[in-house]
Design goal:
Blueprint (H helix, E strand, L loop, with lengths): L9 E4 L3 E2 L20 E5 L1 E4 L7 H16 L11 E5 L4 E3 L4 E2 L2 H8 L7 E4 L1 E2 L11 E2 L9 E4 H6 L2 H15 L25 H7 L8 E5 L38 H5 L9 H5 L5 H15 L8 H11 L5 H10 L14 H25 L3 H15 L3 H4 L17 H15 L4 H6 L9 H5 L1 H14 L2 H4 L3
Parallel strand pairs: 3-5, 4-6, 4-8, 7-9, 8-11
Antiparallel strand pairs: 1-12, 2-3, 10-11
Helix pairs in contact: 1-4, 8-9, 9-11, 10-11, 11-12, 11-14, 12-14, 14-17
């Protein structure tokens, strides 16, 4: 019996067309076992209405690379897996959340149901936990296929990397968790050369997705408001065992901190992996200094989101002021100067992601330190941003002109990131978090609407520690 596994309490079965493999011919001359017939998987592709239009030719180029990642033997123990991906129909368009910043946002997009498979949005800030460094997100172990991916990584970072990321996410759909290894496809952080799979993973990739159109189900301890009436209320996979993610292994990580933050981290920077770059105080200090220099370098802007996240994960109180300045001022003087052939919209999104990463993870510093004065400074700053206090917000630079800006960098999104920072701060921030709901608070509606869940995150972090939240992705 094949067992399916569920990601973050979400079960989604989407319709997917798969061509039935033909019966393989007998081997000539009685040779070795026949090679399995190629499995052709048809995928629909949709973009949010605010995402720049793209063509079937662009989709084909990406899906072709997605297939060659699995089809080719790239050495190092790689296994050929005879699977090809083709687009079905034209590029669709959908409405709804374009900046994915909560489980509710993710469910809304996933709940488009079948036969809608790859959904391209402007920004992903949530993948099982608040994680602005995430670039794609998919439920693990579902019957169908559902992949949410950022526009930047689907179209603008090269077809090779896009193919790797989509194949990685498709692996999650087929029940695969991360497997550490510097060139492994299912490594937590990937680049264009992460293409190696083993025979077990190939078997998973070859499981035909079921043609079922079942809406996602939330199986948390409270209902999510606003789910469509057709949502599943009993998870059909609730009694199946959950697949445990492989423990971080140093052989799957680059030797340098620069290499680590230059990877694409599909589900966001992995907390446990980041901590391997802070095994002793001397190493941690050196890596923090390197990251701070990179955060001040406009040439590193595409990686600022990973840099800011990692600084919060491995840094001590010394990184608070530089990160506060970065989040408030929106990078240095040249932060928004596009390079040759760079889309200004993409530049704005990169800066927005990095600011949200800093705000959303500064609470890790308050949580880890025992210095009450540091806790107080971090919590007061995050609370002021979360409540959109005028005396604090007036210092914020480079805010988009409108709150629905596709970059995800508007004040409501920054305030929500700061509230997430309060949530992971634990006990020092609980009262400040609760104060957001007071009548005199100017907190944006997005923050107020999620306040109950944010308080639950804070209480869980207090009880079970940071890993209970940061390792949920």
């Amino acid at each position: 019996m094949k067992k399916l596994f569920c990601f973050a309490g979400l079960a989604l079965c989407a319709a997917l067309a798969v061509s039935a493999p033909a019966e393989p011919p007998p081997p000539a001359g009685g040779g070795g076992p026949p090679q399995p017939a190629q499995v052709n998987v048809e995928l629909t592709v949709l973009r949010h209405q605010q995402v720049t239009a793209f063509t079937k030719a662009q989709v084909k180029a990406v899906l072709d690379k997605m297939g060659t990642v699995l089809q080719e033997d790239d050495g190092g123990g790689d296994v050929k897996c005879n699977i090809a991906f083709v687009q079905k129909g034209n590029v669709g368009v959908f409405t709804g959340p374009n900046v994915i910043s909560s489980q509710q946002d993710f469910n809304a997009i996933a709940n488009l149901g079948g036969p809608y498979h790859i959904k391209v949005v402007s920004s992903i800030d949530w993948c099982g936990a608040y994680m602005p460094s995430a670039v794609a997100c998919s439920p693990v172990g579902i019957a169908g296929t559902s992949i949410v991916v950022e526009e930047e990584y689907f179209l603008n970072r090269g077809e090779e990397l896009a193919g790797v990321i989509l194949a990685h996410e498709y692996g999650h759909n087929r029940g695969l968790s991360h497997r550490a290894g510097a060139v492994n496809l299912m490594n937590a952080g990937v680049g264009p050369n992460n293409r190696v799979i083993n025979s077990f993973e190939c078997q998973r990739f070859q499981i035909p997705p079921l043609a079922a159109a079942i809406a996602p189900a939330w199986v948390g301890d409270s209902p999510i408001p606003g789910l469509p009436a057709a949502a599943v209320t009993v998870d059909p996979l609730a009694n199946e065992p959950k697949h445990k993610e492989a423990a971080a292994a140093s052989e799957g990580l680059p030797k340098t901190i620069e290499g680590f933050v230059h990877l694409a981290h599909p589900q966001g920077v992995n907390y446990a992996n980041a901590l391997t770059y802070a095994k002793d105080p001397k190493e941690a200090k050196a890596n923090v200094m390197t990251l701070l220099k990179m955060l001040a370098d406009p040439n590193e802007r595409p990686y600022w989101v990973n840099i800011a996240t990692t600084l919060c994960f491995i840094g001590d109180e010394s990184v608070f002021e530089p990160l506060k300045k970065f989040a408030t001022e929106g990078g240095g003087a040249n932060a928004l100067l596009p390079k040759k052939d760079e889309d200004p919209k993409q530049v704005a999104k990169q800066l927005a992601d990095a600011r949200k990463a800093a705000l959303g993870h500064l609470g890790v510093i308050a949580n880890k330190t025992e210095k009450e004065d540091v806790q107080k400074r971090v919590v007061e700053y995050l609370a002021a941003v979360a409540r959109a206090e005028k005396d604090t917000i007036k210092d914020f630079k480079r805010l988009p002109a409108t709150d629905d800006d596709a970059s995800g960098g508007s004040l409501p999104h920054l305030a929500f990131a700061a509230a997430q920072g309060l949530a992971v701060s634990g006990k020092p921030a609980l009262e400040a978090l609760k104060s957001i709901g007071q009548a005199d608070s100017d907190a944006p509606k997005k923050v107020r609407d999620e306040l109950g869940d944010l308080i639950k995150i804070n209480e869980r972090v207090q009880k079970y520690g940071l890993k209970s939240q940061l390792d949920r992705h």
